[in-house]
Design goal:
The chain has about 230 residues and is mainly beta. The protein contains one helix and 18 strands. The chain has one helix at about 220-230; strands at about 1-5, 5, 10, 20-25, 30-35, 40-50, 65-75, 80-95, 100-105, 110-115, 120-125, 140, 145-150, 155-165, 175, 185, 195-200, 200-210. The strands form three sheets. Strands 4, 5, 6, 7, 8, 11, 13, 14 and 18 form a nine-stranded antiparallel β-sheet that branches. Strand 13 (about 145-150) and strand 14 form a beta hairpin. The radius of gyration is 18 Å and the shape is globular.
Length: about 230
């Protein structure tokens, strides 16, 4: 999920009064192949980010805080044992305001919660090694990528998140925790300094989420990060 605060409206929580990312349009999925000839599926949605009070207005009359075009591209590389999801969100300022101020807690961003049955097997890794998440500690550090490996008997897995160089503030600030449950989020440090955009501005977020049926070493994930980053040059 991707959630932050926009002009004080909380789009991360799902409690009463929280903002709503309303789906305005979902295009038919497109099935084909990637430039490298790999099987690929692309799903595009138009979303409007609105306060709770406007969640049930007709879409044609809804004054939004943000307008988003979200493109999800799923690519399967069977030879490499990789299922990759590229998450691209393109934002413009909505009609409700002329200025949006993006804020949030240190964990607000593109976040992942995992199957509860895997909680005990989850280990966070980064280019700098394993963050110290013992004794309820949390870690927020900027890296090109961060991952969680699951050394589950008979079912090893790795899931990694990579940030694109064009994202505001560069490398994601990865929020990691193990207590009360394992969690990983790619953030932009909105708790430290807001991001401000105005009418006419366009901004994007690009991430890659990759899943492997094995325990991946940090060196291999750093190599994958380099290949992902190179596509933006």
């Amino acid at each position: 999920m991707y959630g932050i605060k926009v002009n004080g409206v909380n789009f991360w929580e799902e409690t009463s009064g929280s903002g709503v990312q309303r789906v305005a349009r979902t295009a038919d999925p497109v099935f084909g192949t990637s430039p490298a000839g790999l099987p690929q599926a692309v799903l595009v949605q138009d979303l409007v980010w609105v306060p709770a009070a406007d969640a049930f207005l007709p879409l044609t009359n809804t004054p939004s805080l943000l307008n988003e075009i979200r493109t999800l591209t799923l690519t399967i590389d069977e030879k490499a044992g990789e299922v990759a999801l590229q998450w691209r969100s393109r934002f413009t300022v909505g009609t409700r305001t002329k200025t949006v101020v993006l804020t949030g807690s240190n964990y607000h961003g593109l976040g992942m919660r995992f199957l509860q049955e895997l909680d005990g097997a989850a280990i966070h890794i980064s280019p700098a090694g394993k963050p110290d998440l013992s004794n309820n500690r949390q870690d927020v550090t900027a890296f090109p990528w961060e991952a969680v490996v699951f050394d589950a008997p008979g079912k090893p897995a790795t899931i990694a998140v990579f940030g694109a160089p064009g994202n505001a503030r560069g490398n994601p600030r990865f929020f990691a925790m193990r207590t009360a449950f394992p969690y990983l989020a790619a953030t932009q440090g909105l708790d430290q300094e807001p991001l401000v955009y105005r009418t006419g501005d366009t901004f994007e977020l690009n991430y890659l989420v990759a899943l492997y049926p094995e325990i991946k070493a940090a060196e291999a994930l750093s190599g994958r990060a380099s290949r992902f980053i190179s596509q933006f040059k």
